[in-house]
Amino acid sequence: MKEEKEESLLKQILQSPSYCYTDNYPKRDMWKEIAKLYHGEFKIKFNSGCELEIHQITIPYKKWIIHISVSDTRPMKFQMDFKSRLDFDLLLSWEDFIERILKKFGEPEIEIDSYDFDKRYLIKSSKPDLLKRLLTKEIQEAFLENNIYSVAYKTNSETQKAEWLSVIQRKVGDKDFIMGLINLHMLILDSLNDLKIIN
Predict the structure, then answer these.
(1) What are φ and ψ of residue 63, in 5° steps?
(2) Does residue 65 contact residue 78 with C-beta atoms inside 8 Å?
């Protein structure tokens, strides 16, 4: 009986997803297909020892570029750079148990009047009212549905440039999942532009 339990535990460990290393090689064809579909570009890079594979995808959208990167050891990231019209910062991340306790004793966090979204995310911004207009109901639902881990938007007032960085997750997922994320970032670009945050 003990041997069966040990074998079952070993089987679970071997079948569980790795949080340290994922093999991106099998995803090459999917990325090529997605890049072609969005008139983008797909590149494969390696670290200095050539043992880790890095996938870089660029997707053009209107006058901007969406950069997607994922490696064998790092989570998938979406990055977008812009000319900034406004000094605006945003930090949004999963809210864990410790943060929930700390916020009871610290300064109140920004809430956007959506129970599910406010419960999931800790939100900070230099312009809370603008942030609430940026995160439309459609964008909020897409964040929750796609389980976005964190987002940072930072403005450099000296260079008048800004960067959006979304950290997604360790596992890349399937083609439909990636296309949903690309479409989400297109929505975000439109919202940033409509609110005159970016050029």
Answers:
(1) -100, 15
(2) no
Which spans in the chain are helix H? 2-15, 28-37, 97-105, 115-120, 128-134, 137-146, 175-194
Q: Which residue has the tokens 């000296």?
A: 158
**Inter-CA distances, 141 with 10, 16, 97, 167, 172, Å:** 38, 28, 22, 17, 20
pTM over 0.85, yes/no: no
Q: Token match 């008139």: residue?
A: 39
Interacting residues of 37 by C-beta distance below 8 A, sequence separation 6+: 179
Give every CB contact of residue 146 below 8 A, 6+ residues apart in sequence: 168, 177, 180, 181, 184
pLDDT tens, residue by residue, 52-104: 788 899 999 999 999 999 886 778 999 999 999 999 999 999 876 545 554 55
Enter the tokens of residue 44. 């494969």
> Measured between alpha carbons, how far is residue 43 from residues 6, 25, 99, 171 in Å?
43, 12, 38, 19
Domain coordinates in residue numbering, the chain: 25-195
Would you tell me how many other CB atoms lie within 10 Å of the CB of residue 194? 12
* pLDDT of the residue at 16: 36
Identify which of 128, 112, 130 has the alpha carbon closest to the alpha carbon of residue 120: 112
pLDDT of 2: 45
SS3 label, residue 78: strand
